[in-house]
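Response to reviewer comment R2.3. The reviewers asked that we include at least one raw input/output pair. We reproduce the pair for Pyridoxal phosphate-dependent aminotransferase here without editing.
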Amino acid sequence: MIQLSKRAQNLKTSPTLFLVAKARELASQGHDVISLTVGEPDWPTFKAPSEAGIEAIQKGITKYTPASGTLELRKAISEKIKTELGFEYTPKEITVASGAKYIIFAALQMLCSPGDEVIVATPYWVSYPTMIELADGVPHIVECGEVENFKITPELLEKAINAKTRAFLFCSPSNPTGLQYSAEELKALAEVLRKHPHVAIISDDIYNRLVFDGTKVAPHILQVAPDLRDRTVLVNGGSKAYSMTGWRIGWAAGPERLITAMADYQSQSTGSPSSISQHALLAGLKVSEGDIAEVVAKLIKRKFSGLKELSSIEQFKVAEPQGAFYFWVDIRSCLGKTYKDKLVRTSKDFCDILLDQYFVATVPGAECGTEGFMRLSFAVSEETMSRAIKRMKEFVGELA
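Raw output as returned:
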């Protein structure tokens, strides 16, 4: 019998991808399933990167590239960061890989030794803790609830840092809440981090262009604390703003020593990122600004439409998102009740019944480290969201 490693035995399936698979299975059985789970735009990849991908195939741009990505693409990423955030990176300080998720994975692999701690605040993206564990690290989970507006405070961050702390990992705008850190909040966190030079900072910026306050890009920690540049990793990719989820293309900018290690790690694992995806992303970075503006306008409209619909369910409380495309819904008043003699104890119970009986797939807050909530993606049409919320209202009305 094949013996699996301890790592394999402890490995957890991605909760969101598991739910996507379950929703598809129910749909294959003929059910009208509405999936609000996966963080994937419902609009197509923009015209420019799509055509560039076709061009890459037609022109034979289909061979291996450097493990860190083509020089042309890294230069374009450098220019993008300079334009959006105001600071410069050389191509040697940038690496491109098969998705922003793999970028985070590689960064953790290169930062963590066995027993090192990585600070993550709740609610978090479902994959953070497992990726830390796969790097032999220890997720140091900091509970941040409604009182903290679901964001880590300087006091909580200071309390969490110790001699074993290797990194602080956070996402703004947040998956799953859609909330973002203000410049003032980032400045306060920076003051804490400045006192602990052994702590690396991983800033997951994948949603930083999908912001709803009229600005072009979300506030960034390096804008208020440029002195932290030498220990900060910026993570981004094509998946969200450019709707290139299936192209699997992401990048990191950071200290050359770490970026070089990440690129070497990539060379020994995934090899080089897809040449076709790189060529497509290059076009997207150059000419898709208008497309992104249209997408943001669409998301703002969907946000307000969804909030209005959700307000019809008095048992729900919803944090108004400032970016990304998620509703973070407080369902605590629904827990402890029964549905057809079944006790609904947890957010998982609630979401399981919602999927199995009403065919609406959502992500339970427990998977994000915060019980009593659920995450809904509003990267779907207003009509689809409206139908989903009607089913939720019917389900909640059946609770006794």
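The two ends are 49 Å apart (CA to CA). DSSP finds 14 helices and 15 strands in the chain. Further pairs are available on request from the corresponding author.
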